[in-house]
Structures are given as structure tokens and as C-alpha cells.
Design a protein that fits this description.
The protein contains seven helices and two strands, in the order H-H-H-E-E-H-H-H-H. By secondary structure, the chain is mostly helical. It has two domains: 137 residues, no CATH class; 89 residues, no CATH class.
């Protein structure tokens, strides 16, 4: 299969996957959820998953059951490997299916793999004939330009997103360290009560801790939207992620109530 076509198919299904996932997650969350690791509206894992299926069946007219089974297997393998690599890269499990029945190390689960299998059927028998006709109707030179632009844009986005996640991890680590230091200093100051200057210092330390917390909360909201089940094998870090999730939930609730009050005033 022509490389330009492969790149175009990858991008097309990455965008379709993003739309499907956003609609699916937003329905259950009852709010618009911006999914995905990258900045742009596309999910590469859907693009790569679709390419695997298209390459498997490009010369065949397979039985639907075969399409479902092979999609189930290969997309599960892709999700497992992707989860493993990202965990090693960021020292955090970006999604965790441990609470789902029939999961494998929390990286894949029966429900999601079944949904991927069904999506494989939709792609092969429903979407791809139209996508293929559309892409092959494009002039080869224009298709070459489009595929080059896709590679450049996604590469820049991926690099930027990796740096963003690394910055979040650093901020997360710095917060934990500084929060501990402030807690220790506040503990010492509490034993030396009665001095007005010490009390003012305690207030400043408490304000500094709150400011650090607010900055981390703001930075974590986009990450938590993209990976709502992000966790870590480190118990302290895992608990901090849980705390960030709860704070993000409370922040969204307060914002929703504030918007409702403003709407009533108008």
C-alpha cells in the first residue's frame, strides 16, 4: 500500500477515533471531555490500530467473525504495549483498568477490547470504503503534500506533548517535595507558639502551600481529562493522583454552579 495513503489513513482514523472517544466519554461524564495525549484532535492509537486492520485485510474479503477476532487481538496487543512504553517513559500508568473485570495488568480489559473489535467491523465494512474512495480521488501530488504536512504536524505535537507531560511530572514531584518541607516547618512552628513573627511566618508558609496546590490543580486538569484513570505503583504518588482527581471534580462542580448562577442573573 502506498506510503502517502497509509499516512492519510492513519490521520483520518486518528481523528475519527478522537471524535468517538470524546463522544463516548462525554456522554458518561455529562460534560465535554477533551481526550487524548496530544494537543490536536486526534488519537494516534486509533490511527495505528486501524492501519493494522487495513494491512491485515487489504487483499482479502474476510468473514466478519475473523475481522472481529483479529481486531480484538491486535488492538489489545497495541494497547498493552503502548501502556507499557508510556509507563516506562513517564513513570506513571496513564490508564488503569484494574477495576474492570477480566483485565490484564490493568493495561487492557475485555470490555474495551470487545469495543475495539466492534469498531474494526465498522471500519472494514462501514467507513473504510468511503474513506478509501475519498483518499484515492485526491491527486498524487496533493496527497504527498498532505501526508508530509501530517507527519510534520503530528511529530511537532508529539514532541510538545512529551515535554508537557515531563513538565507536569516535574511539577508534581516538586510539589510533593516542597509540600513536605512546608509541613515540617509548620510542624516546628506550631511548637513555638506565642511569637507574633513566627505566626506570620506560619501564615506565609500556609499561603505558599496553597498557591503550590492551586498551580498543580490547574496543570493537572488537562492531564486528568486525557487520562482520568492515571495512577502510579508508588503508593504516595497514587494517593496524590486520587487527591488531584477529587479536587478537579470539586472544581468542575463549583464552576458549573457558578455558570448556572450567572445564567439565572442574565
Amino acid at each position: 500500500m502506498q506510503l502517502d495513503l497509509l499516512i492519510s489513513y492513519f490521520f483520518c482514523y486518528a481523528v475519527i477515533g478522537y471524535i468517538v472517544e470524546v463522544l463516548y466519554c462525554s456522554f458518561f461524564e455529562k460534560r465535554l471531555v477533551n481526550r487524548g495525549f496530544l494537543h490536536g484532535p486526534y488519537l494516534p492509537i486509533y490511527g495505528f490500530g486501524s492501519l493494522i486492520i487495513l494491512l491485515l485485510f487489504q487483499y482479502k474479503s474476510p468473514h466478519p467473525l475473523l475481522v472481529f477476532v483479529l481486531t480484538f487481538i491486535f488492538t489489545s496487543m497495541l494497547e498493552y504495549v503502548t501502556s507499557y512504553v508510556l509507563e516506562r517513559l513517564f513513570n506513571a500508568k496513564l490508564w488503569d483498568y484494574s477495576t474492570y473485570r477480566f483485565n490484564l495488568h490493568g493495561r487492557v480489559c475485555l470490555r474495551n477490547s470487545t469495543l475495539f473489535g466492534l469498531l474494526g467491523l465498522v471500519v472494514i465494512y462501514g467507513i473504510h470504503p468511503y474513506v478509501s474512495n475519498m483518499m484515492q480521488s485526491i491527486e498524487p501530488q496533493l496527497l504527498n503534500w498532505l501526508s508530509t504536512a501530517i507527519v510534520v504536524v503530528v511529530s511537532i505535537d508529539a514532541t510538545s506533548s512529551v515535554f508537557r507531560m515531563a513538565a507536569f511530572q516535574k511539577q508534581f514531584g516538586d510539589f510533593r517535595q516542597k509540600a513536605k518541607e512546608i509541613e515540617e516547618r509548620l510542624g516546628l512552628l506550631s511548637k513555638l507558639s506565642g511569637n507574633k513573627h513566627l505566626e506570620q511566618l506560619a501564615l506565609r508558609l500556609d499561603a505558599e502551600r496553597e498557591e503550590l496546590k492551586q498551580r498543580l490543580d490547574a496543570a493537572s486538569r488537562r492531564i486528568l481529562d486525557a487520562f482520568p484513570s492515571i495512577t502510579s505503583s508508588n503508593e504516595e504518588k497514587r494517593l496524590q493522583f486520587e487527591n488531584l482527581r477529587q479536587q478537579a471534580k470539586e472544581w468542575r462542580k463549583r464552576r458549573k454552579e457558578s455558570m448556572r448562577r450567572h445564567a439565572k442573573r442574565d
